[in-house]
Amino acid sequence: MLKVREVLKDIGLVDKEIQVYCALLPWGSASIRALAQKTNINRGSVHDALGALEERGLIASEYRGSRKRFIIRSPEEILEILKNQKNRLLVIEKKVRDVLPTLLSFYVKHGGRPAVEYFDSDEGIRQILEDVLEIVSKLPNKAYALYSSKSVRSYLYKLFPQFTKEKVRLGIRTRVIALGEGGDPKNLKLAQRRWLSTDAPAYVLIYGPKIALISIADDHSPFGVLIRDEKIATTQRILFDHLWEKI
Fold first, then answer.
1. What's the confidence (pLDDT) of residue 81?
2. What is the rounded CA–CA span in Å between residue 215 and residue 201?
3. Under 8 Å between Cβ of 204 and 211
4. For residue 167, what pLDDT band results from cuts at 50, 70 and 90?
5. How far apart are CA 234 and CA 229, in angstroms?
6. Residues 25-52: tens digit of each pLDDT
7. Are residues 128 and 238 in the same domain?
8. Of 205, 203, 214, which Cα lies nearest the Cα of 150?
9. pLDDT tens digits, residue range 191-215?
10. What is the enclosing helix (H) or strand (E) of 78?
C-alpha cells in the first residue's frame, strides 16, 4: 500500500483523501460512518475527502433508501486523471509562453537595462499598436515618429484597421518618413510626411520611451520587437530628426 499511497499523493491527493480512498478500496462501497470508524477521522473530514475524491472521478455515490453510500470506481480512472492533468499542463504551458515576453521584460528592467518584448502573432502586433495609442495620448505633445515601410504597411493596418481613425480621434500627431511609394493620406491634417524612394523590410515606431520594430517573416506573418529604454529611444529620435531635416 505504500506505493499506492505514493501514487495517490503524486496525482494530488492530500493525506486524508488518501486514507479514505485506501479504506474504501478493498470494501468497494461504504457509508461515511463506516469510513470514519475505519480511518479514525471525524465524519466531517471524511465527508470533505469523499467530495474531493468524487470530484476527481475516483469514486461515485448513490442512495440506498435514505442512506448515501460511496462506491469505488475502477483504479484505471487514475490514468484518466493523469491524462487530464497533462492536458491542463499543456494549456498552462501555452499561457506561460504567451506571457513570457512580458515576464522577461520586467525581469531585465533592473540595473538600467532595456525591457524587451517579442511578439509573433497578429494579436501581438495589435498590442503594439494599441500601446502606441495609449502611450502617445498621454504625452504632452501627443506626437511620435515612424519609418513607414512599404513592404510592411499593408500587413500592419489589416491587423488594426481603425488605427488611423483612432489616432485622429485622440489628436495624435505623427512625423512619417515613408520608405517606398504610398502611405495613408487620410490623416494628413495631423501627419507630416517625407519620402525616401528606397523601401526597407521593417516598420519602426519611435514613441515616448519606446521603440517598436515590425517586420514580416518568411511565411508572410508579421512579428514585432518592442524595446523600452529612454536612452535608445532618444538616440533613435535624434537620428530621425537629423534625417528628417535632410530630406
1. 81
2. 6
3. yes
4. very high
5. 9
6. 999 999 999 999 999 999 999 999 999 9
7. yes
8. 203
9. 899 989 888 889 999 999 999 999 9
10. helix 77-107
In terms of pLDDT, which residue wins out, 56 or 112? Answer: 56
Do 52 and 152 lie in one domain? The reply is no
Distance of CA 17 to the CA centre of its chain: 34
As a whole number, the mean pLDDT across the chain is: 87
> Can you name the residues that pair with 194 across neighbouring β-strands?
177
CB atoms within 10 A of CB 97: 9
Domain containing 136 equals: 114-246
Q: Which long-range contacts (CB under 8 A, 24 or more apart) does 80-89 make?
A: 81/11, 81/56, 81/57, 82/11, 85/11, 85/12
Dihedral of alpha carbons 44, 54, 61, 21, sign: negative
How much of the chain exceeds pLDDT 70, in percent? 91
Number of domains in the chain: 3
Contact predicate 210/224, CB 8 Å: no
How many Å apart are CA 70 and CA 47, to the nearest integer?
Answer: 10
